[in-house]
Model the fold of this input.
Amino acid sequence: MTAAMLVFHETDQFAGCRRITGDTTSGRLSPGVAQMRVAWFHQYGEPEVLVCEEAPTPIAGPGEALIRVRATGINHVDLDVRAGTSRVPLKFPHILGREFAGEVAALGDPGSSFREGDRVWVACRLPCERCEFCLTGRDNLCERGGYFGMDIPGGYAEFVKVPLRSLNLLPAHLSFEDAAASQIAFGTAWHVLINRGGLRAGHTVLIQAAGSGIGSAAVQVARLAGARIIATAGSDAKLERARALGADELINYTREPEFDQKVLELTQGRGVDVVMEHIGGEVFTRSLACLRTDGTMVTVGAHAGEVVPLDIIPFFRRQLRLVGSKNASLSELREVMAMVADGRLKPVIHATFPLEEAAQAHRTVGSRDLFGKVLLKP
Done:
């Protein structure tokens, strides 16, 4: 694919976007593709701070590739970063987007094994590959690396410059949309349930908010592990979709806010072996009451409340485990993406939006009136 083939027609491609002068992305321009569309924000705030504008297109240097983005997954952390609640300092304007897939538009390294036109998905994180965690296969704990959409310009753009080491070939039968919706949801669910939670066949697991991107992914991962699944959600419609993915028992926490009592009823007072909790607040506290003796709760989010009261006594009297979890290691990401490619895992996509509607996409994710993932399609 030549640069000339990538020239855009402003009359339709840049509708709704504003022109920005000066180089705010890389300091260099890509021949034939001087300007690209981005959905970024210049200050923290509500979804309305996300604006679609034009910006200079970066070009790939040695060891890098320029990716034409075809689909980008929106994660709840994007909303936190935009709002400023993530406590991560940013340089404005900022381009979000941790997980994305597309095509190699240009290569800065002629000796690369990749070729222009290759279909790829981009690993969401760039570990340093030198620290203790990286050298022991726990690169998700690396403190020297960076994340796309946070430390590095992300996928809310038509083009992204990435290191070659972050590229992974995308099979021809797997859509860009499925690739962009899979990496973080399935990777995190796998890391939480299998790696941190020790979930295995014969276990009973409680999966909170099964209608979310990570929740719907977790139901599939737990089904693959051979576990009995109790799923919660805020509507019967979401619960029925969770059942279709493999959930065995359903709890509508809007109708049954004391879901812990229902869990104990469903397990004849025994409780569950593993809880996947990513809500926080009162849900966190009640989830602990759902554990069986010697059970494990893995926490991976706290959007409904980051500070909670905690009774320590049950932990030593019943030998409970409370385990924190980040997202997956690179090896886990590649493992789950292989499962997606061979059909063992299938992402659930709620809706897709163009870059011009990034603010509305954030509202959709923030409303929680969804089942599965929300995508942007440049």
